[in-house]
Amino acid sequence: MSDRIKVISAYNGRCGIDNTDLKISRRWPAIGSVVTFTREQIEELQFDPAFMNMVREGLLYIEDMDVKKEIGVEPEDAVKPTIILLDEKSLKRFWKDMPLAQFKVESKTLTNE
User: Fold this and answer.
1) What is the value of pTM for the model shown?
2) Low-confidence ranges of the chain (pLDDT < 50)
3) In what side-by-side order are the strands of the sheet with 60-62?
């Protein structure tokens, strides 16, 4: 397990966290921006409701599956992630290029996030 944890913004805009108690402040300027945290910071931020809400809702994406299991974002027995990070190409395919019938079938496999 790596000590540096990557957290990627899946939000189409700027977002950030400010936890004055933990002295942690981070900014993601755009979708796809990557910010790294230490394992200890992620363990402390699991008790920050704002950060955890952004992770659970899919606004922020943690790559490391083990970390997601440790902080309770993924079930312990999960093999595949429940939140899937879609890139711009995949989103364009879903919203513009995909026929409606195929969209209905494939969108059922995705979570709300």
Assistant:
1) 0.71
2) 1
3) 34-38, 4-9, 60-62
